Amino acid sequence: MTGLTDRSSKSSSALRRRRQTLLRQLPPLDAILRGSLIERYKRCGKPGCKCADGPGHGPKYYLSVSFPGERPQMDYVPQEELAATRTLVANFHAVRTALEEICAINRELLRRREAL
Ligand SMILES: [Zn+2]
Q1: Distance from the CA of 54 to the center of ligand 1, in angstroms?
Q2: Is the per-residue pLDDT at 1 higher than 70?
Q3: I want to staple 66 with a disulfide (CB 3.0 to 4.6 A). Which of 1, 72, 86, 87 is the partner?
Q4: How far is the CA of 66 from the centre of ligand 1 (A)?
């Protein structure tokens, strides 16, 4: 569906319809979050704590966001925000994928010298 050959075999009106569909299916743009959720376990270091024998206390979750030329920034995600955070991260990927496909459609229309 997203392959280049497939796109170039479609009529321009089919491409425009596909573009409309992508637009309609976009998640709300205020509900996106770039980054990845990572899981951490920590040993507390208290003498005799059972965590010394295992991976440590956890899992605790962090949102890791990278920036060009910088170390990734890590933000603690409280358990009660975990599900919502996962959704926002997934939304960001959905938006990015949709934008890529819309750009590819527009590039194809440009190649055909068709109205954008
Ligand atoms: Zn412990």
Answers
A1: 9
A2: no
A3: 72
A4: 30
